[in-house]
C-alpha cells in the first residue's frame, strides 16, 4: 500500500474532529445561553469547517467529488445568508435542504452508503430542529444567527463523516484491487514456472488458435524454438491427415469450454509423433479476452506399444501372418463385398504328418519348417488374397473374386506342385505335403460356417490318403457331425465299460511255443459294433483321450497277466506286451501310473513289456531316456515298435535302452516275394543280433514268411498265421492248447491271411 493510502485514515479522523468541535461547543453554549461564547466559536466555525472539509477532500482522493461538495457548501451558505437577511423562517427550510445535498452527491457518484447515511443524518437533524424549536419559544430557532450556525455546523460535520466513509470504502477497494493484482501476478508467475519446466507441451492460444505462448518443452520434443512458433497457427505443425481433427477440437473447446483429441505433430526433422491434446477455454483476467490453453502429452511410445499389442493380438508370433481371429474378420468383410460382386473362396491347408517332424527333429526344426512353408504358400498368392496361420500346422487362404470352386482347385494344384520341392536348411532336406479343403461362399451365413466347411473338406482329403485336395460337399458335414458324435461317445467309453482288450499270441519261433500276448484295444460301440483301434485311436490322440484310455489299458493288461500267471504257472510267466502312446510317455507322472499299476495288480514287472514307437522317443529325448532307464530298473522290458519306417531308426538303438526290436509288418508282408524287403528284413535281424537285442516280427501270415524268419534266427513272431487277436476266453483256450507242441504244425494258413483288425 502506498504512503498516501496509509495516511488517509488519519486525515479522515482529523477532518471529523475539526468538523465536530464547533458543533459540540455551540450546543454547550446554546444550552448555557451565553452569547459571548457563541461569538468566537461562530467565527471558528466559519474558519475551520472549510479546513476540515479540505482535509476530507484530500483523504478521499476524488477531485470531482471535492468540487461538487465545494459548490454545494458555498451554495447553501449563500442561500442561508440571503434568507437570514430577510429574517424569514425559510432559512430553516433551506438549512434542512442543504443537509440533503450529501445524498444527492452520493447518488451522483453511485455511493449508496453515502446516500443511506446522509438520509439518516438529514432525518436526525430535522427531528433535532423540531425539538429545539419547540423548546425555545417564543421565536423560531432558525431566525437566530446561532441557528444558522447550527445548521451549517451539522452540514459540515456530515460532509467530513461522509468523506471519511467514502475514503474508507475506496481504500478497501484499492486494497482488494491491489491484492487481486498481486494474486494474478503470482498466479501468472506460478503458471509460467510450471509451464517452463513441464514435459508436456503447454501453449496459450487466442480465440482463433494462434499461438501466444509456448513452453520450452516444444523445442525439446519438436525441435522448434518458442520464438519460431509464437504468432503462428498450430495447424502448420499438424499432420495433414489430422488437421481436421485438431480444428474440430479447438472449435469444441470454444463452445463447451474443454475438448480432447489425439493427433500427430510434425517435428522439425519431418517425423510424426503422436500427442494426446487437452484444450480448455479461459478468460484473460487482464483484458477479459477469450483464450485457449492446450496441454499436449507425447504418447508416441504408448501408441507404438498399443500397435504392437494389437499386432500380436491379430497376428501369429512365429510366421507374422494374420491369425484365426483376423482371418475370420477379413472373411466376414469379403463375404459382405462378395454378395454385391464376385463371391469368395477359402482354402484350409493342413501340413501332413507334421507331428513326425517335431518328434524326429525337434520343435525348433518344426518351427523353421512352418516358417518356410508359410513363405512358399505366400509366394503363390495374389496381392489381394490373405494367408493366415490358423493354429499349429493349419493355414487358411482367402481368395477374393473367386467365381467358382475351380479357382480354388487351381491354387491347390499350384500348392501341391510347389510342395514337390524339398525344404532345405540346417535340418537338411525335408519334404512336406499338405491336405487342402476348398469351399466357395454360397449360402453361408457366417465366416465361421465357411471355415467349418473348409475344415470338413480337409478331413475328407486326409481320410483319402493325404497330400490331396477336396472341394466341400454337403455330405462332408454329416461326416464331421459323425466324427463329433464319435468323440463324444469315446469320452464316455471308459466309464461305461465299452472298452475291452483282445490278445494276440507272441510265439517263440525257435521252440514253437507261446511266449506271451500283445494286448490290443477294442471298442464295443453300442451302435456301431466292435471297432478296431484304427477307427478311434487317432481321434483319441488328437483329443488327448488316449491318456486315460492308455492308463486303463495298462492296468487291465497287468491284471490279466497276473491272473494268467496265477492260473497257468510255469517256469516263467507269460509276457504281456502293451503299447504306450507318445503322449503318455511325455506325461510328468507317467512313472507314477506304471508304479501304481504294478502295485495294484501285483504283476511281476519281468512279465511286462512296453512297446514304444519311434515318434514317442524324440518328443523330449533326455526326459524319455530317464523314463526308459527307470522302467528297465523295475525289470520291465522295452520294445521299439514299427522299426524301420522312421527317419533315423539306426541311431535310436544306440541312444535309447531297448530290449526288443519289432520289425514292421510292411516289410514282412512281402518277405520272400520282394528281394528288397527280404534283404531289409535280413539286415534288421542281423542288426538286432549285433546289438544283442531280441528281434520280433509282426504280420506273419504265411508259412513261407515263417520259414524265412526262422532261417535268419528271428526269435519271436506274431500274426494271423498263428492266431487272430483273441478275446480273453479264447486266449485262455489258446494257452491250454499251446502245450501240445509247435504252434504251427496243425495250423492251416488258408483263411487266416485276411488283414489284421
Task: Give an overview of the whole structure.
With 757 residues, the chain is of the alpha/beta class. The protein is built from 28 helices and 19 strands. Helix 6 runs antiparallel to helix 7 (145-197). The N and C termini lie far apart (113 Å). Residues 1-8, 36-49, 83-100, 136-146 and 746-757 have low confidence and may be disordered.
Topology:
Elements: H1 3-32, H2 35-60, H3 63-86, H4 90-99, H5 101-109, H6 112-135, H7 145-197, E1 201-206, E2 211-214, H8 217-222, H9 226-229, H10 243-256, E3 258-266, E4 272-283, E5 290-298, H11 300-314, H12 324-338, E6 345-351, H13 354-361, H14 363-378, E7 386-391, E8 394-399, H15 405-418, E9 434-440, H16 447-463, E10 469-471, H17 474-493, E11 499-508, E12 513-525, E13 529-531, H18 537-543, H19 546-567, E14 575-580, H20 582-585, H21 590-601, E15 608-613, H22 614-617, H23 621-633, E16 637-643, H24 649-655, E17 660-663, H25 665-668, H26 675-690, E18 694-697, H27 703-711, E19 716-717, H28 728-737
Parallel strand pairs: 9-10, 12-14, 14-15, 15-16, 16-17, 17-18, 18-19
Antiparallel strand pairs: 1-2, 1-5, 3-4, 4-5, 6-8, 6-9, 7-8, 11-12, 11-19, 12-13
Helix pairs in contact: 1-2, 1-7, 2-3, 2-7, 3-4, 3-5, 3-7, 4-7, 5-6, 6-7, 13-14, 16-17, 19-21
